[in-house]
Model the fold of this input.
Amino acid sequence: MSVIQNFCIACGQQLTRPIISNAGVICSICGRQGLFRKQIIITGITQMNHGNICVSGVDLKTWRFVRPLFRAGLQRDFTLDGETQVISHFNLVEIEFKHYRPEQIHHTEDWIINENFAPKFIKHLSNQEIINVLNKMAISDLNQAIQPQDKSLFIVKAKRILQIWDEISFGQFKVRITFIDHSGHLHSGIPVKDLLTLCFIKYQKSVNNNNYSNELIRVFNANANRYIRIGLTRQFHGQYWKQVTALITVPDLFNGNSFSFYENKIGNQL
Ligand SMILES: [Zn+2]
Done:
């Protein structure tokens, strides 16, 4: 299946001629540019190895996903401005980019950012604005959306979550989710890498709430606006594995709290 690029990945302007490529294409004007700033709606903050995190969002100009990367990996401090969490779900922030660095399969959203420019908070989206973003970006059939191999990030409209559970695997705290997407396909035991969900569940367990799973499922499934953010891993054992990178409802499932809110309550980091 060939993917055709009609618009510049940086500015969103129509290209002079369409180009067949899984990765985005930069127009000649943007190609001559040095550093430039983009306004991004944050849609994911996920746990990586060695205390690093992975941030992703939606570029307001192009309505495409963007994954800002540091050459040396992104530390948690990047999300904070002093005590304030700038990088939080559905915040609009300004980030300075150096250049677009896509892979050809799935991971076409990677941009190298300027580490000397602190992300600037612009505003938190209203519920109506969040619903507009979700309506614009969401897909209903995850397997079909993965097929062209031109994306690694998806907002999936969910029919319902069937199960959420935690486990200790290789000495590490893990959470998994089984859900049905809007098209009716089952996705079983998908690992959760969303820092917020992980911190929330760890907090529930720290106060001996062992019913957190039923509570979370009930509230999620009862919400008219329910979505699951999915990210694909880099290639690992020959596959690009699905991971849950956010549970999204409007109004918010976590009352607007960020991962650091629960982390501070527990008093240690995951
Ligand atoms: Zn351009």
User: Anything to note?
Assistant: Residues 4-124 form a domain with the OB fold (Dihydrolipoamide Acetyltransferase, E2P) fold (CATH 2.40.50). The longest helix spans residues 195-206. Residues 105 and 149 are 5 Å apart (CA to CA).
